[in-house]
Design goal:
With 187 residues, this protein is an alpha+beta fold. The chain has three helices and ten strands; from the N terminus they run αββββββββαββα. The chain has one domain: Immunoglobulin-like (Sandwich). Helix 2 packs antiparallel against helix 3.
């Protein structure tokens, strides 16, 4: 049995290697989708979320223990064909201090109606997004389509939180960091 010359065997091996590399490259994972759906197994509600909440940065730090991040993210529930959009917001707070949030789209206040109660009233058994920190407060608001579009098209989004003590914290995000929000809006 003749095995062939070394150059012939190398050429055959290189060809097989090229085919293997091409096949593996074709199987490489596609870029992750910014919007995902998942089923809440306890309520049978389909939940549509963005992969990562939009991160807003504090305009000023209020002390050495202040958290410089707040977050917003849209989500949609589908309960037996009834689709409802909401906005989740989260901002740092000092334990026991009640905060009132105000969202600004390109400097203009956005009117948001609070969601009904807690997540159970939204048809979910748990929050659509994980709390970024134990000291963060979370809010849920109904999200009208025109408000979602304003946020998706914004050059700048600002979240203001006002404490009962009168203290105001401002968190902002620029357009370049709203890619996932735009993807949610355009679906």
């Amino acid at each position: 049995m003749k095995l062939g010359s070394i150059p012939d065997r190398l050429a055959g091996s290189c060809c097989c290697l090229a085919i293997l590399v091409a096949a593996l490259t074709g199987c490489a994972s596609a870029p992750s989708q910014p919007v995902v759906e998942r089923l809440d197994p306890n309520t049978a509600t389909t939940l549509t979320v963005i992969k990562k909440p939009v991160e807003l940065l504090a305009e000023s730090i209020g002390g050495p223990l202040s958290d410089p991040f707040a977050f917003i993210a849209p989500f949609e529930t589908d309960r037996m064909g009834t689709h409802t959009q909401y906005l989740w917001m989260s901002a740092p707070s000092i334990t026991g201090v009640k905060l009132e949030p105000q969202l600004l789209c390109d400097g203009q206040p956005v009117t948001l109606s609070p969601g009904e109660g807690d997540v159970e009233h939204l048809g979910l058994s748990h929050a659509p997004y994980q709390s970024p920190a134990p000291w963060n407060l979370q809010w849920y608001f109904q999200l009208p389509r025109n408000t979602l579009q304003c946020l998706a098209d914004a050059q700048k989004i600002t979240l203001e939180t006002r404490a009962v003590t009168g203290e105001v914290a401002r968190f902002t995000v620029e357009r370049k960091d709203l890619t996932e929000l735009r993807a949610f809006s355009s679906r």
